[in-house]
Amino acid sequence: MTLADERTDEVVDTPAVGADPAPLARGAGVGRSGPAHDALKERWFACSNALGWSVASEWPDPAVDDVCDVVLSGRVGPPLEQALTRWAGARAAAGIGLDETLSDLAALHTAVSGALGDLGERRRLGLPGAEGSRLVRVVSLGWTDVACGDLTDAAALDPLSGLASARYLRTRLAEVYREARAHGTSVSERTALVVVTLQVAGWSRVAPLTVAGDAAAVVFDAGETIAVVGRSTVVVLAPREGLAGRVRVLRGLLARRLAGASGVLGAPSARIVALPAAIDGVGDVLAKLRDAEPAVPRRDRILGFDVPVIAPEHDAD
User: Fold this and answer.
1) Is the Cβ–Cβ distance between 219 and 173 less than 8 Å?
2) Is the pLDDT confidence value at 298 over 70?
3) Dist. CA 188–CA 265, nearest whole Å
4) What is the CA 204 to chain-centroid distance, rounded?
5) DSSP classification of residue 200
6) What are residue 239's DSSP bridge partners?
7) Is-contact 289 269, C-beta < 8 A?
8) pLDDT tens readout for residues 59-107
9) pTM greater than 0.70
10) CA distance 317 to 300
11) Contact 173/281 with Cβ under 8 angstroms?
């Protein structure tokens, strides 16, 4: 059974010799096309099925098309890493386990390693050995970030850093807004967020987050809520009175404690962020903090990733 069979819920006949195989890989709602893209996706799907993919209808995903595009373009480094990270995260978000995700990665290796015809010159994907270890690590991190992120949102404490979770912070904020409403006061005038942002490597971010949380606890030691929001952001819910001076102290403490720390790739920042007038805007504020996090430059780049390269077509002289 092909990918198109699963998407249309119809069984199609095997195409005659010489017929265009591309329609087998194309499905409704898929914006990408082209013989190389379609052939790679169809071959990847077939290899994944052969390796034991459990539910064929769950295999298609826009992230699959992104990976195919990057592989066929020959791009390496950040473009390839980002595509694989998004793909692994999409698998986790769909409830697909890490073992099956890694099997799907192996299927991609098999599909490209044996590529001929529409996929271009036969090339080696580079999955075995040291290059393969880095590739597996990137995919595992991408899957884990989404899977563990769901667990973090559902818990009162962040399981890695030991700080309060984003869910607890939202609960605490709801209490603050209820208290302000009961007393006829303004939350935005009396309270604010102190946002500490770190630029850390993805696989070693836990220790710097813990150090940042400990530093915040030294400066904000009167019952303020200190929580983790996103991958590399620590947030303190604190009263506005004297806040600017406390933030200056925190900046100096962070600079001393994180100087030369493993995994820290830049100077930490600490700033004051205003809270909205109403509780309805809190979700947007926290989402913007997550979206504003710096990109994660991993130290395990997939260099030398050998992929098929489609030579550009040139006009005839």
Assistant:
1) no
2) no
3) 33
4) 15
5) B
6) 191
7) no
8) 999 999 999 888 888 776 677 778 898 999 899 888 898 989 999 998 8
9) no
10) 44
11) no
Residue position matching structure tokens 């998407």: 7
Residue tagged 């069979």 (tokens): 5
Q: Which phi and psi (to 5°) does residue 200 adopt?
A: -130, 155
Q: What is the number of H-type helices and E-type strands within the chain? A: 12, 4
Q: How far is CA 125 from CA 72, 110, 115, 250, in A?
A: 11, 8, 10, 47
Distance separating alpha carbons of residues 218 and 240, to the nearest angstrom? 17
Taking the CB of residue 268, how many other CB atoms lie within 10 A of it? 25
Side by side, which strands form the sheet with 225-229?
A: 225-229, 233-239, 191-197, 269-274
Question: What whole-number distance in Å separates Cα of residue 247 and Cα of residue 299?
Answer: 31
> Taking the CB of residue 235, how many other CB atoms lie within 10 A of it?
25
pLDDT at 143 over 70: yes
**C-beta of residue 24 within 8 angstroms of C-beta of residue 15:** yes
CA–CA dist 309, 157 (Å, integer): 47
CA distances from 259 to 164, 198, 208, 265, 268 (A): 24, 12, 10, 10, 10
Total count of residues recorded for the chain? 317
- Token match 């991408």: residue? 142
Rounded to whole angstroms, the Cα distance separating 21 from 42 reads 9
CA 70, CA 302: separation in Å to the nearest integer?
13
Question: Amino acid identity, residue 68?
Answer: C
Torsions phi, psi for 227 (to 5 deg): -135, 165
Segment (H or E) for 105: helix 98-113
Distance CA 149, CA 168 (A): 14
Backbone phi, then psi, for 292, in 5-degree steps? -85, 0
